[in-house]
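debug: dumping io for the single-chain case to check the tokenizer round-trip. Nothing else runs in this session.
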Amino acid sequence: MQRSDLMADGPNKAPPRSLLYANGTDKWETERPIIGIAHSFNEAVPGHTHSEKPDEAATAGIYVAHGPPLEF
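debug: decoded output
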């Protein structure tokens, strides 16, 4: 990945960067590639509550490895 592809660079990346900052992301996290974690956990469907703990473990592991996780 080229350095210019990161969200930390340039005024053209200011809109997505501002949305991440509003969600609590810091500058350190915007300087690294974001790693997406797709999962089915939500509070509306009781059958998905069992997937919350593995998702938390994956998120923590990615963060420890210096990659900012983003759950969706």
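debug: round-trip ok. Strands lie at 35-37, 69-71.
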